[in-house]
Specification:
Helices cover 47% and strands 14% of the residues. By secondary structure, it is of the alpha/beta class. Strands 1, 2, 5, 6, 9, 10, 11, 12, 16 and 17 form a 10-stranded mixed β-sheet that branches. α22 packs parallel to α23. Bound molecules: ligand F55. Belongs to the glycogen phosphorylase family.
Amino acid sequence: DPSPESTFVCPIIIEDDRTGLDTETIRRALRDNLLYIQGKLPELASKNDLYMALAYTIRDRLLQRWLTTQQTYLKKDVRTVCYLSAEFLVGPHLANNLINLGIYEQVQKAVSESGLKLEELIAQEEEPGLGNGGLGRLAACYLDSLSTLEIPAIGYGIRYEFGIFDQEIHDGWQVEITDKWLQYGNPWEIARPEAGVEVKFGGYTESYTDENGNYRSRWIPDYVVKGIPYDTPILGYRVNTANTMRLWKSEACESFDFGRFNRGDYYGAVDNKVHSENISKVLYPNDEPIQGKELRLEQQYFFVSCSLQDMIRIHLHENPSLNSFHQKWSVQLNDTHPSVGVAELMRLLIDVHHFDWDKAWFITQNTFAYTNHTLLPEALEKWPLSIFGRLLPRLMEIIYEINHRFLDKIRIIYPHDDGKISRLSIIDESGEKYVRMAHLACVGSQAINGVAALHTELLKKDVLRNFYELFPEKFSNKTNGVTPRRWIVSSNPRLTFAITEKIGENWIKHLEDLRGLENYVDDGEFRDSWRRIKYDIKADLANYIDKKVGIKVDPSTLFDVQVKRIHEYKRQHLNVLHIVTLYHRLKNNPNLDITPRTFIFGGKAAPGYFMAKLIIKLINSVAEVIDNDPTIGGRLKVVFLPDYNVTFGQRVYPAADLSEQISTAGKEASGTGNMKFSMNGALTIGTLDGANIEIREEVGAENFFLFGLTTEEVYAKKAAGYNPQEYYYHNEELRAVLDLIGSGFFSRGDSSLFRPLVDNLIYDDPYMLLADYQSYIDCQEGVGRAYKDQEHWSRLAILNVARMGKFSSDRSIRQYCEEIWRVQPVKIELPDYIQANA
Ligand code: F55
């Protein structure tokens, strides 16, 4: 990196084709990029060529902001947040950058001469699917808010060559297709090979005495992998701040296998190259048993070591030593996936920078903070000692030492309590030995947080109870939030316009201002236009559905939507039980007056999760039978939209009337889709789980369709010996519905197909669908009635939007900044030859 003294103001550019924001300059720039980057004349340019030319045109306009931001951070020696996450599900960049720069209209005009619409070019972008779901998307929303709030921040992660698989549906079943998001190039990233770092794996350690007579440990690795950073600018909304998302790609070290190569072992050398490149090759889907997957641990250590080395390099550029490291960096662990960082920072400080243990530990503990995202015990990460010790021998030693010193302290607090010791230990020694990553994260962090109020309470009472007892002051809640820039402004321009017309545009940065909409709930004209807007959006979605899956749906029906990863605890199959109940009622009473509904599902199942895949098959089977039943007459439609992702989310949240948030109480840590629906004017049917509780508190109980057991009731019922068969035998309608599914009625007479699913519910039902069934059905009847009174429904929808201010990720990030990271905004001044944002 150039030192601040040696940096010079780039003398080449005064206002020109790469910085100007007016329509004419952008038009010129587009033609220029089409020729000089894509190598195409306008008459031969494909849609993708035009997209690429436009993307580069916009990237050009980000660059001065980005470089100025980084230069300012260096000069001012700021405190920086590093968000370490194995996943960043950012979604397409183009539209968001246009909005944040404030040049959407200018670009729309500039593009029109190509004969294409801006929206078509926006749709051309392949989204980077570098995440599974909520956790990865949260990281992306947080980067948006960090930049918008002008906080110095870096998002560190992995540049997977293949992101989350694309989903196709064949004969009702999920089929996974490789996600080739990089095949046409990625105009938003810049590789920085000069900032590459090396990461060791395998081998052994040895001790030695250094020149000062100190005992030290040295790691002789089996192989070394190089990490190359790829940087993407993350621009804030109408500010000059552009932070960096720095994703690491793994490559072979040229130098490492020359010995082999020169000895003639060409294939051995190539093997090493292949293995090195595999590390960042593919994103692991969640809900897969990954304990045994060594490559996953390699991924985690790889990106964490690269990122910490990168911070240290930047730090030493500005500071004489690492003594102040924890004062300049706050490192957030997005779940336990990067928690090996605790041991890695210790290694770097002790082995490489020769700190003594206590000083290194002080710095480490004051650097990290840990966010937990799950209460499911089976989802807590642990690595078999055998794998861990073989792959990361030096880190294994350090973890033993951390644990040893930690347990020595514990013994003083709890003398003679061996149970306590083994429950708190970082090493699980109850059977096969494991490293418990959540324990490492808790011991090595200054702060620990859950992602919704209930979730944090349950962490304290349950999953992390022993740690809460030890250091209660470390624990706090940070309820999740989502960025209104992507999830309202970009995805729902019609609603954005309607809101802004009434209350101005301040709400985009201060979502609490949506409260101003409450003044318009009694305005009949406003409600009319609200309904027209919703209808138009639903009609757009109906067209899209017809195009994608060839099903015709009526935009005047109630759009009842459940989109999220497919998991038993999320209970998509409870939704199906409701659909089959309505169908069964209509079969018995064809003239029954019900509110016509369109049920829309979307979501991916982990490739190895049999029950989740069977749920997808069930949804599609029920959809087909109902669709082909003429007696239903369009009163019920069921659609499973394949390949749910960020791009499709942006289409579907604005079009929903009803948001399904129906997880078993105590299982969904927070949920964030629940927030996206509600801020787009959908009402929620939900359990008292995750952030649903807080959403209901904000919008008011009268605006929320509540059903189901509470967490306490779930626990109590389990403790008393829950028996789903009682519900099966005592509820006639429920029994009829389960029997219908079990009979083969939806599977062309094949009564074995859905047997595992039905039997699981009747005999085990770990997520208590049968216990919540009647309450759900009754609640849905209330929904149907409420929808019939459209004036009433509109009032509720408007109030929902008006009261969602709390759920902006800006609020979440402000709380992290003040209560965990202790970082402050830094204003970025652009050089005066750069045109300010519109
Ligand atoms: C990804 C990889 C692994 Cl190995 C395990 C889990 C995941 C993952 O995607 N988890 C996830 O998305 N968790 C969700 O986090 C959201 C953000 O905090 C929560 O809203 C949601 O409740 C939780 O399930």
